[in-house]
Design a protein that fits this description.
The complex is a heterodimer of chains A (297) and B (196). By secondary structure, chain A is an alpha/beta fold. Chain A is built from ten helices and eleven strands. Chain A is globular, with a radius of gyration of 20 Å. Chain B has a single domain, classed as MFS general substrate transporter like domains (Growth Hormone, Chain: A, Up-down Bundle), CATH 1.20.1250. Helices cover 86% and strands 0% of the residues of chain B. Classes of the chains: A alpha/beta (297), B mainly alpha (196).
C-alpha cells in the first residue's frame, strides 16, 4: 500500500467517522463580480462553482475533473432529455451559463447546431472558460446580458429557436422577471413550430404550485421530471407522444452514454400528471413574489 | 389638527415614495432586467427628484403656506403616478427599443415615469417645516420630528411593500392603494376643520 493510498484511506475513514468535521472542499478560485462572489471548490475529483462560501446553499454546477464528460448533477441529465422531444434542433438558446455543461454537451451531440448562451455575469463566463472547459467557437456564442432583455430583443428581431433552455435560477435567488406568464409568452414567441422549452426549476416550497400553473397557462400540458430539482419540458405545438419520445431516445442512447445519462431511467421520469394545486395564482409581471413564495413550505 | 396633519402628510409621503420606488424596480425588471445598475438608475432618479423637490417645496412655502396646499402636493404626487399604471410597461418597452443599453434605458425610463411623482413628494417636507415652525428656538425640534416621521414612513413603506404587499397584490393594485390613501389624506387636508 503506497503512501498515497494510505492517505486516501485515512482521509476516507476520517470523512466517515467525522462527517461534521470533515470539510474536504478546497477553495481553488474566487472572484468578485457585479452580482456576487464566484467561488470554485474542489473536493477530490469533483470541482464545483458556487456563489456561497463552502457551497453552503447549493452548487451551481460541478464537473468531474477525471472524467469531464460525465455529468455530475442530475438536473443537467434531465435537461438534456429535451432532445427526446426534438432530437435535431438546429438553433439553441440557453439562458444561464453556469459552468457551461449544457452548451458543451449539446455542442458535442449536435456539432452543427448554432448555440447561443446568455449569461448576465461576465465573471461566470470567465470562470466557466478557465475552470470548466467551456469554450466558444463559430457555433457556440455567449452574450453577457440579462436573459429577459435578450429575449425581448430577439423577439423584436424576429429570431427563432428550436430549443430554449432556462437555467438562470440558483437555490437562493430567483430573478423574478424570468418566472412570469409574460416572460414565458415571450419565450414561446421565439420557439419555432417544432420548438422545445426545457426549464430547470424548483421541486419544493409553495413556489412549485405557482410555477406549475404559470407554465400550464402558457404551454398547456407539459412533461414534468423530478429528481432533486425539477425540469419542465414543454413544446409550442402538440406535446410528442410517449412512443415518439422513446424512439427519439433510442437514437440518442449512444451519445448520452458518454454523459452518463440513462435512457430508461429518464423515460420513466416523464410525467404529465399535475401534482400541484391548480388553484394557485399564476405569476405575472404584475404579481411575481417568487422569492417570497420560495420561502414558504 | 393644525400640527398633526403636516406630520401625517410627511410620514405618508415618505411611505409613498419608497413604495413607489420598490414597485418601480419591479416595473422596470421585465424590460431592463434587475441588475444592480437598473436599481442604481432608479435610486438616482428618485434622489435627484427629491433633491429638486426640496428646493421647490422650500420656495413654494414662501407664498401663503397652508395645510390645504400641503395636501395638494400629496394629491399631485398621487395623480402623477397614473401614467405609470396606465401605460408603464408600454412606455418602457418603447424606450428599450430606442435605447438598448439597459443602464441608460432604465435611467430614461425611470425618469419619465417617476421623476414627477417623486418631485412633488420631495416638496412636502420643507413645506411642512414651514407650517410647523412658529419660532426659531423650537425650529430644530420640529425639523427633527418631521425628518423622523418622514424617514420612519419611508422605512415602513420599504418593508411593508417588499415583505408583504407584493406577496398579496398586483403591482397596479398597490399603486392604486397608495394613490387612494394619498387622495383621502389630501381631501382631509383640503376640507378639514380649521383650514383656510
Amino acid at each position: 500500500m503506497s503512501v498515497r493510498h494510505l492517505l486516501a484511506c485515512s482521509a476516507l475513514a476520517l470523512a466517515m467517522l467525522m462527517p461534521a468535521l470533515a470539510d474536504a472542499q478546497r477553495l481553488i478560485h474566487s472572484e468578485r463580480s457585479l452580482y456576487r462572489e464566484v467561488l470554485v471548490y474542489e473536493d477530490g475529483p469533483i470541482r464545483c462553482m458556487c456563489f456561497t462560501r463552502n457551497c453552503r446553499i447549493g452548487r451551481q454546477t460541478c464537473m468531474n475533473t477525471e472524467a469531464p464528460n460525465r455529468f455530475v448533477m442530475n438536473y443537467t441529465r434531465m435537461m438534456m432529455t429535451a432532445l427526446f422531444l426534438n432530437p435535431q434542433p438546429r438553433s439553441i438558446l440557453i439562458i444561464g451559463l453556469g459552468g457551461g455543461t449544457l452548451p458543451q454537451a449539446l455542442h458535442r451531440v449536435l456539432p452543427e447546431a448554432r448555440i447561443e448562451v446568455v449569461e448576465i455575469d461576465p465573471a461566470v463566463v470567465r470562470v466557466a472558460k478557465r475552470f470548466f472547459g467551456f469554450s466558444t467557437n463559430d457555433r457556440v456564442h455567449v452574450e453577457e446580458l440579462d436573459g429577459r432583455v435578450f429575449v425581448k430583443r430577439a423577439q423584436r428581431e424576429g429570431r427563432q429557436y428550436d430549443l430554449i433552455m432556462l437555467d438562470a435560477f440558483d437555490h437562493e435567488y430567483i430573478p423574478e422577471h424570468l418566472l412570469t406568464r409574460e416572460f414565458l409568452q415571450e419565450v414561446a414567441a421565439l420557439l419555432g413550430s417544432q420548438g422545445v422549452l426545457a426549464a430547470n426549476t424548483f421541486s419544493s416550497s409553495r413556489l412549485y404550485d405557482h410555477e406549475s400553473v404559470t407554465y400550464a397557462a402558457v404551454f398547456g400540458t407539459f412533461y414534468n421530471l423530478k429528481q432533486d430539482n425539477r425540469v419542465i419540458l414543454a413544446t409550442k405545438g402538440a406535446l410528442p407522444e410517449r412512443d415518439q419520445i422513446a424512439r427519439n431516445a433510442e437514437q440518442l442512447r449512444k451519445a448520452f452514454a458518454v454523459f452518463d445519462i440513462g435512457v430508461e431511467k429518464h423515460l420513466r421520469m416523464f410525467s404529465t400528471t399535475p401534482d400541484w394545486d391548480r388553484r394557485a395564482r399564476v405569476l405575472t409581471d404584475q404579481y411575481s413574489p417568487a422569492n417570497l413564495l420560495n420561502l414558504r413550505e | 389638527m393644525q400640527t398633526a396633519l403636516p406630520y401625517v402628510i410627511a410620514g405618508w409621503s415618505g411611505f409613498f415614495v419608497m413604495s413607489v420606488e420598490l414597485l418601480g424596480g419591479r416595473l422596470l425588471a421585465p424590460t431592463f432586467g434587475s441588475s444592480i445598475y437598473v436599481w442604481g438608475a432608479i435610486i438616482a432618479v428618485f434622489m435627484l427628484a427629491l433633491a429638486l423637490g426640496y428646493l421647490a417645496g422650500g420656495r413654494w412655502s414662501l407664498r401663503a403656506p397652508s395645510v390645504r396646499r400641503l395636501g395638494l402636493l400629496l394629491f399631485a404626487a398621487a395623480v402623477s403616478v397614473l401614467p405609470t399604471v396606465w401605460f408603464g410597461p408600454t412606455l418602457l418597452d418603447a424606450v428599450a427599443a430606442r435605447l438598448p443599453d439597459p443602464r441608460f434605458g432604465s435611467l430614461l425610463g425611470s425618469t419619465l415615469l417617476f421623476f414627477v411623482p417623486t418631485f412633488f413628494s420631495g416638496m412636502v417636507s420643507p413645506y411642512a417645516v414651514r407650517l410647523l415652525v412658529q419660532e426659531r428656538t423650537t425650529s430644530g425640534r420640529h425639523a427633527g420630528q418631521l425628518y423622523f416621521v418622514s424617514t420612519f414612513g419611508s422605512a415602513a413603506g420599504t418593508l411593508l411593500t417588499s415583505f408583504y404587499l407584493v406577496l398579496y397584490f398586483e403591482v397596479n393594485h398597490i399603486f392604486g392603494g397608495l394613490m387612494g390613501v394619498s387622495m383621502v389624506i389630501g381631501v382631509i387636508a383640503w376640507f378639514g376643520r380649521g383650514q383656510q
